[in-house]
Model the fold of this input.
Amino acid sequence: KYVLDRSDKYSNIIFISIHNNSTGATSQTSASGIRVYYRPTMKVKDESGKSVVYYDGYNDDGRKLFAQILNEEMQKKSVFSKKTNKLYNDSDLAVLREQNVVSALVEVGFINNPNDLALLRRQQTREDIAAGMFEGIRKYFAQIKNKVENLLGA
Done:
């Protein structure tokens, strides 16, 4: 509700939902790294199993661009293995589906992976992740500003 209320007032609002990941297994996992999710316009199954478009007014380009930049910048700053850091757009996550702002969900490390957990316990790791997110946000808004200026011929 907080995000929705602000999105009516402000035009340049973004939303990031930040979490730690887990495979759900009770034992340790080899799954590792950072996952960034965004939700474009896509079909989902309704209660009857029929494929429907839940909403088709998302800023798909903005959501994808933001998630890509965020993922790239977090990879640059992070100590997590680059080969395990991924961008996803196929998840029907309510936190991304239920609001119409440029948004991403970030899963930082797997808490049931002992190596990831050790990294997450280090303050420097958390600061590096935050720095990557900050730089991703800064670069996203810089690109948006440049696109608007180019359109206006400024």
